[in-house]
Amino acid sequence: MSDASGTSFLTRAADPAEIVTPDDLGEEERMLVQAVQDFAAREVEPVMNKLMSRDPETSRGLFKKAAELGIFMAEVPEADGGLDLSVLAVTGMLSTPADLGPLSPMIMGHQGIGTLPIVYFGTPEQKEKYLQRCMDGDILSAFALTEPSTGSDAMNIRTRAVLDAEGTHYVINGAKQWITNAGWADLFVLFAKVDGERFTAFLVERDTEGLSIGEPEKLLGQHGSSVCALSLEDVCVPVENVLGEIGKGHKVAFCTLNMGRLKLSAASATGAKVAVEEASTYAGQRIQFGLPIGRFGLIERKLADMAARAYAAESVAYRTAGLVYHALEALKAEGSISNQARLDTLTEFSVECALAKVYGSEAYNGNADVAVQVFGGYGFSEEYAPAKMYRDSRVSRIYEGTNEICRLYAQRTIFRRLAAAAGGGGTVLAKSLSTLRELHAGTTSAHDEGQSGEANAALRAVAAMKQVYFMLLEEVVNGVGAERLTEPESQQFLASLADAAMEIYAAESVALRVSKLDAVGSAESREIRADLAVLVTERSAERVHAEARTVLGELRPGAEGGARLAEVDALLPAPRALVGARARVAEWLIARGGLLPGAAS
Fold it and tell me: Above 50 in pLDDT, residue 109?
């Protein structure tokens, strides 16, 4: 059990026993994951070409079969007829999209943002009319928020709803774009501004007069998915189809955002692992100059660094899921959990969800790119896996809030929470810096005892990175001004701080995972896990150092900045030997088809 709160990874020393890893999945969770994988192999793989061509009969048929697995019931409370599975079970299930291929956007879009708003905000009548049919796969739901003129600026949508003279219907006019599942959806969770001012959610059925659905977009990746624009001309929606409250549509819009980011981080981590498997298998088989290319140092480096990214992304995803899981389990022990309590818990860890999404999506996209390079000319061919992986991975950095928005959100929230914890409040952070330093002081000496050599070294390096982070935080607050941190010109500083925080979270997640598994598995697997901890920590320290140079170079140019950077150099760990570690990791990967070391290996 964990007593962690949101953003506390920056101010407290976590116990390795608190950390959730993929090895902590129980029998129920593993059965669900296996069921999805078996479904993919049995039903999806044989018709992959039809799915890629967007054949509606094939796609809808498999969608209905997926419902029989319980995927669409997984997160729905038992009181509403669902399975009410734990966050860990859902995280495990959401680590399987790579197996579902083109079917994944349809299934995951419906399961999450298409259905959960009804669960959390639907009236009893709305649930009776739509929810069971969503769970059974009888209807397919889509989430319609984005518009041609708004992307990240979602609150400034132009779609307008006006109550008719009789007071029975809202008349909606406007347009939506990039709506996943739009070509097949029966029901839309659609957003409009009542009287052009009050942001509100509506449930709009497909056959409503005046609703037109455009042709499928020609996408870079995710071929086989249905992404279309919507046009609304005098669409009459009954007043009873308002979802939530008038003017409170932002709650509906963001209700599943944090869980969506957590899910995407798990899916991205799996994508990053699949890239490792593809590249490692190929590197072990491709012969050049009389040797498998995996024996050459530059390929060893690529494979090992891919593995480190994937291992870190997975560690972050499951650690974040564990934070939410432990919090919900604590609430459950006190009695039943309301939907509002679930949403509040996800909001509590919204920073971790945002950072996990950024880290996972960039690991996936980065590993896909390197996989193409390992395959060489074959990687540029659609006949081989890396080309599709490269195309499909790119959108993960845009889904669920762009990575830029996630970085800004995470750091601004960190500012508010650290200031509040220091007793200064979110608007007077500059006055709270001395208290923040006191809050942080306890993290620098933690984990000195009881850990293995590499895990201990990694945790000490993370503690040093935290010191650097707080130094940079002071520099930004004092140099930019707390009152200006929300202005556009401050975004580069916020991004630097967010990247430093993200690297701290990732490196610590890996170090704690390796420490937790210190006595588990073979001696060789323990050595490889330790090597991965070294690789992740070194990369994180490099990025923290780079962001320190960026911040100090701008706020303290010249000799003064050089002196502060020398303080950073003194805090961060000395460089580690990486060549041997990379060679050992690459050898492990090639021998095992790219599989990362787990507790059982």
Answer: yes
Bridge-based pairing of strands 141-144 and 187-194 is parallel
Query: Exposed, middle or buried, 498 (CB in 10 Å: 0-12/13-18/19+)?
Result: buried
C-alpha R_g of the chain: 24
Domain ranges (residues) in the chain: 8-136, 141-245, 256-401, 409-591
Angle (CA) 574-575-579 rounded to 5° is 155
**Confidence at residue 25, expressed as pLDDT on a 0 to 100 scale:** 87
Q: How far apart are CA 499 and CA 89, in angstroms?
A: 29
Q: What is the helix, strand, coil percentage profile of the chain, to 5?
A: 65, 10, 25
pTM of the predicted model as reported, rounded to 2 decimal places: 0.94
Please indicate whether the domains covering 256-401 and 409-591 agree at the CATH topology level.
Answer: yes
In the structure encoding, which two tokens stand for residue 394, read together?
């790119």
| CA atoms of 542 and 503, how far apart (whole Å) | 10
Residue that wins the pLDDT comparison between 56 and 176 = 176
> What letter represents residue 24's amino acid?
D
Report long-range pairs for 243-248 (Cβ below 8 Å, ≥24 apart). 243/117, 243/118, 243/121, 243/122, 243/126, 243/189, 243/201, 243/202, 243/203, 244/121, 244/200, 244/201, 245/200, 246/194, 246/198, 246/200, 247/194, 247/197, 247/198, 247/199, 247/200, 248/199, 248/200
Architecture of domain 409-591: Up-down Bundle (1.20)
Please name the CATH architecture into which domain 8-136 falls: Orthogonal Bundle (1.10)
Element holding 189 (H helix, E strand): strand 187-194
State phi, psi for 369 to the nearest 5 degrees.
-65, -45
List all residues 6 or more positions away from 84 whose beta carbon is below 8 Å from its beta carbon: 75, 76, 77, 78
CATH classification code of 256-401: 1.20.140.10
- The reply to whether CATH 2.40.110.10 applies to domain 141-245 is yes
Q: Which residues are catalytic?
A: 400
* Mean pLDDT within 152-172: 94
Using DSSP, state whether 205 is helix, strand or coil: strand
CB-based contacts of 439: which residues, under 8 Å, 6+ apart? Answer: 11, 418, 421, 422
For the CA atoms of 213, 216, 218, 222, the dihedral, rounded to the nearest 10 degrees, stands at: 120
